[in-house]
Amino acid sequence: MPEQNPIGPVDSSRVPRFAGFATFARLPRIDQVERADVAVVGVPFDAGVSYRPGARFGPSALREASRLLRPYHPELDVSPFAETQVVDAGDIALNPFNIGEAIETLQSEAEALTADGTRLVTVGGDHTIALPLLRAAAKKHGPVALLHFDAHLDTWDTYFGEPYTHGTPFRRASEEGILDTEALSHVGTRGPLYGKRDLEEDRRLGFGIVTSGDVMRRGVAETVDALRQRIGGRPLYISVDIDVLDPAHAPGTGTPEAGGMTSRELLEILRGLRDCNLVGADVVELAPAYDHAEITAIAASHVAYDLVSLLSLGKSA
Ligand SMILES: N=C(N)NCCCC(=O)O
Ligand SMILES: [Zn+2]
Ligand SMILES: [Zn+2]
């Protein structure tokens, strides 16, 4: 908690929401505050995609869609921007032609941003970026529990012989020992795979899977109970690939799969995790060129708002 009252968003009763620069939720920039508890940071990078490109434009689309967010979260009963200093840390500039260099740069930038205890909600960008973000989190907290919302496993080994792609971050993270193998969960998994071996290898890495169908059949409450039991008090990182949502709820993404979760289910599950020890999170794979009426960008901005709120709750507890 800062000494002074946090600097909040621009007052929407004085300056209309649709006016002015689009920082996340119209919050101050990081250079306008002394210290931040939570920073939303953009990573406009999509050199790791296997299908449709365009997630490099995700951060700016999410910021635009976040103009309508309001300061009080009724379901979590928290005013995140009043209880903690939340800022927009801008975008991290990465080399779009060199994935290896981009990963190294992102890791060191994330380490620098979190050095004095600021926690990050990172807005992507494709899922490649989760690896350096997990490295930075694990350097600070030790191996982290991972809650991974995604249509895909993202534990594949290589694509065209390349180890660093948006389909492989969690395989690499697992090999590097930065994940707590007792507490790894995919949620929302669905769709065709390359073979049964994908599932066997994923299980061998220690992941548990709650499919999109499981969420529908069991319901949110049972899903949350099972996830919380697995996570316990461990430092937790949440990675949300927006394609976890059904294409009806998130058309603006690069590798859409039918039969996904609703945005209501996703937000309800996140809200069930209020007692967890969240240390960082990301929202990735928003590709606005395939979006319609900002459907996906709005969903992603609300997911980011919920993640900020969870971090804020953890901080003020
Ligand atoms: N959207 C993410 N992160 N991964 C999808 C990889 C699916 C594929 O290339 O088969
Ligand atoms: Zn995915
Ligand atoms: Zn993914």
Q: What's the gyration radius in Å?
A: 18 Å
Continuous helix count? 10
Report the uncertain regions: none
Strand order of the largest sheet: 2-1-3-8-7-4-5-6
Average pLDDT:
97
CATH homologous superfamily annotation: Ureohydrolase domain
CATH architectural arrangement: 3-Layer(aba) Sandwich
Largest sheet: 8 strands, parallel
Helical content (DSSP H or I, runs of 4+): 25-40%
Number of strands: 8
Give the domain tally: 1
Strand fraction: 15-25%
What is the H/E string?
A: EHHEHEHEHEHEHHEHEH
CATH names the topology as Arginase, Chain A
Distinct bound molecules: 4-carbamimidamidobutanoic acid, zinc ion
Shape: globular
CATH class descriptor name: Alpha Beta
* Ends apart, CA distance between termini: 10 Å
SSE-based structural type: alpha/beta
EC number: 3.5.3.7
Binding site for Mn(2+): 127, 150, 152, 154, 241, 243
Keywords: Hydrolase, Manganese, Metal-binding
Organism: Amycolatopsis japonica
